[in-house]
């Protein structure tokens, strides 16, 4: 499964409670669309750390890394390339 | 200073007249400022023995026993305590909905019925409680939040002003700028409309409205009117001229206090054990007085209930006056799912029953339950949604589906006490 698919499924299931793929675009801002609030972001971080086996540093917890499917995919790829 | 004396004198009298009774009168003692104020005033001015009642939680983040003990020692009250375990919430939830007679979004009423049960068990029938103080004298975080957002709205590009948001959650580690980015984004909603009558409540209302995502298609189609529009029609015309803080106080009193705190969480839980609650802070003279006081004296900068604290200085220990405010809450999701869920939960949240009652979308409820069982539902929204869905299912079961059995049979009350009997019926 691609990172993108894995993330989409996770966000759809856990924040939108649906398997309807049309409910989420990859560039939708989680904050602007009200998909994820300030506690929700912690859930996303737990998920990333668990599934992709790296720690998200405090300085990395910014919307540029975490606020859409695309942003997270880029962020994960960067982290994986750096290893 | 003149204000301090007026407030104290009013509160003394409001408390004293509520001690008049042909049966002994007790008081709730949460360990917070408001109940401590009442206990201190009874101690100094009441001619009744000081009898107090409190509730504690096994969950440390919710428990205030430390402050309760401090007040008990300080005022030398005769005290009774009941411990609320997570299991107690699940065990008493059906009975609670029987008494609220409506769905709820928080489990907080459940411990309140355990508390009134304790009062009754100890032979008391009347208690004084601190209800209304936060609304009348400016105590809630939602007022603080509104104040910060108003201040920020005046200079939206300021990078400094939103850092005040950290003051809202002293228990969170918000020293890191990254977390602030998220807070700013969240609390920044509606910032461009600082003059909106319900500016203070936009965030709470929009967060709570997210629960509607779980509605079934049929329910969504039926609920077409915007609740805010309906509420707007009932706001007084002169509200437009009020200070934003007074608007927030008014909204809070008219919405959450009247509709929920005094009802589902208040009188209905008291009366479930035939205990009468009396509320000195809701004495009309106290309210009229507080309404004339400028908001900046009720909440000085971000110091909530400043006037009350100043007025009570000689009566209360420093540690109670200066403690940080803790909202009263009870455990929600963990009460129902931590160990094995009670059978009624499995049954009422099953796909079958969700479809049958048709208020909610069964596949969404299913995914919510799956998330909960994975231990991943930690947010405020998920907790509200679960309690809302579960209480609606129970409510339908008790009052619609089994209307005949529950209201026409004399055994109904008895079978309720054992919970599962009713659901299984």
Helical amount among residues of chain A, as a percent range?
Answer: 40-55%
Largest sheet of chain B: 5 strands, parallel
CATH superfamily of chain A: ACP-like
Structural class of chain B: mainly alpha
Total domains of chain B: 3
* Mean pLDDT rating of chain A: 91
Question: Quaternary state, please?
Answer: heterodimer
Give me the CATH architecture of chain A, please.
Orthogonal Bundle
Count of discrete alpha- or pi-helical segments spanning 4 or more residues of chain B: 25
- The CATH topology of the largest domain in chain B corresponds to Rossmann fold
Q: Rg of chain B, please?
A: 22 Å
Largest interface: A-B, 23 and 26 residues
What kind of sheet is the major sheet of chain A?
none
Write structural notes for this entry.
The complex is a heterodimer of chains A (83) and B (425). Chain A has 4 helices and no strands. Chain A is mainly alpha-helical. In chain A, helix 1 (3-14) crosses helix 4. Chain A is globular. Chain B is mainly alpha-helical. Chain B is 56% helix and 6% strand. The longest helix of chain B has 22 residues, at 380-401. Classes of the chains: A mainly alpha (83), B mainly alpha (425).
What secondary-structure arrangement, pairings included, does this model have?
The complex is a heterodimer of chains A (83) and B (425).
Chain A: H1 3-14, H2 40-52, H3 63-66, H4 69-82
Helix pairs in contact in A: 1-4
Chain B: H1 2-17, E1 25-28, H2 33-45, E2 51-57, H3 65-75, E3 78-84, H4 86-100, H5 109-121, E4 126-128, H6 133-137, H7 141-153, H8 177-187, H9 202-209, H10 217-222, H11 227-232, H12 244-261, H13 263-271, E5 276-278, H14 284-292, H15 295-298, H16 306-311, H17 318-321, H18 333-337, H19 343-348, H20 351-357, H21 362-373, H22 380-401, H23 403-408, H24 412-417, H25 420-424
Parallel strand pairs in B: 1-2, 1-4, 2-3, 4-5
